[in-house]
């Protein structure tokens, strides 16, 4: 096996948003970092590609909101460093029945975290959004200021560029097959399928939907991270209404705590189209996907028809894009040391369960802290520990279920 020569402080495996943010954070601290990616950089076969991801402060779990606030600040910091925009701000709007457990937890979390918010009845919602959202009389809306859209491919490219500018070495088409501890030299060997070997003092694994496969091969650990194939759907806005769904017209990012959980972003990437999707997907092998779109049945078309009073053509999405979730049983992330023979020298960050993109910058900061200092400040990591699955295979037990449990669709 060929040794590539260079030695690194940290080798990061996987160049989605998490790996790219981590590489940037490490390079920013003046250390030598190598970022390895199995496919082309900015490929469309993982989770961090495409045109839009929501950022929102409202979470049923109260421990995510502070992370979003820090991430939002770090998104802006990175934008000012690179000189272009990837994060487009707009308010965020949640809706559902007042007795819905997730929505109740979201409101409780706003109160606990002193997040400015307004609870609106169906009439106030209609006034707030000038008739663009129509809620059933027994539903409530939750209006918060911190929302927005992040452009994923552009954002990953931004962090890779920033990392490169600070001296990071970036290599794509390098599939990592082995991660081994070198007892003698006190470090880690990372070996690729084309026979190259790289040496690092430490290693980070941010392999997205391949996390389970890779960690099983390198350490025997079987993580409960299930890849799901999911579909991003764009719907046509009926003629004459296009301007109403733009950020400039105050249209928000939104989530409906109904069955199924439906989310969407303002019209931004494709003129005259709006993204409306369903949280979840069907289990898949990331290397053997069928690429068949997740079928969106009657509940979604009916929801679109009723919520937007016929302003959106609910006949079916006009274009779709495939993507993958990496679901944990409790919907919480996994950010921890790999342990075993690797001790604190290998950090893993995965299982972002369909809600990780917004957190990329803060996760990068946390992972860099863990791998370089052995600890992080300002974030409670107990919800993200690997050990929670040993105590209970389902992880952290939550009162609400509709958002957390991945909706496993039938193909
Ligand atoms: C349809 C959809 C909508 C979403 N909406 C939102 C949203 O609105 N808001 C939000 O915050 N989040 C959202 N998410 C979730 C978010 O996109 C993901 O949580 C995030 O992109 C995960 O990033 P990652 O870096 O962990 O994984 P990935 O982007 O998949 O990156 C992992 C990388 O590791 C590489 N890799 C794997 N194995 C190896 C190996 N052996 N060697 C080398 N490289 C390897 C892969 O090729 C890949 O490039 C959404 C996801 C989807 C699919």
Structure description:
Its cofactor is FAD. One of its GO terms (molecular function) is flavin adenine dinucleotide binding. Residues 9-370 form the FAD dependent oxidoreductase domain. It catalyses: sarcosine + O2 + H2O = formaldehyde + glycine + H2O2. The protein has helices at residues 17-28, 65-82, 101-112, 122-128, 152-165, 211-219, 298-307, 360-373, 388-391; strands at 2-13, 33-36, 53-56, 87-96, 117-120, 140-150, 169-171, 176-182, 187-192, 196-205, 226-236, 253-257, 262-265, 273-278, 282-283, 319-327, 334-337, 346-350. By secondary structure, the chain is α+β, with helices and mostly antiparallel strands. The protein has a single domain (2-391), classed as 3-Layer(bba) Sandwich (FAD/NAD(P)-binding domain), CATH 3.50.50. The longest helix is centred in the first third of the chain and has 18 residues, at 65-82.
List the SSEs and their pairings.
Elements: E1 2-13, H1 17-28, E2 33-36, E3 53-56, H2 65-82, E4 87-96, H3 101-112, E5 117-120, H4 122-128, E6 140-150, H5 152-165, E7 169-171, E8 176-182, E9 187-192, E10 196-205, H6 211-219, E11 226-236, E12 253-257, E13 262-265, E14 273-278, E15 282-283, H7 298-307, E16 319-327, E17 334-337, E18 346-350, H8 360-373, H9 388-391
Parallel strand pairs: 1-2, 1-10, 2-7, 4-12, 10-18
Antiparallel strand pairs: 3-6, 4-6, 5-6, 8-9, 9-10, 11-14, 11-15, 11-16, 12-13, 13-14, 17-18
Helix pairs in contact: 1-5, 1-8, 2-5, 2-8
Flavin-adenine dinucleotide binds at residues 13-19, 36-39, 46-48, 53-54, 175-176, 206-210, 214, 230, 232, 323-325, 350, 352, 354-358.
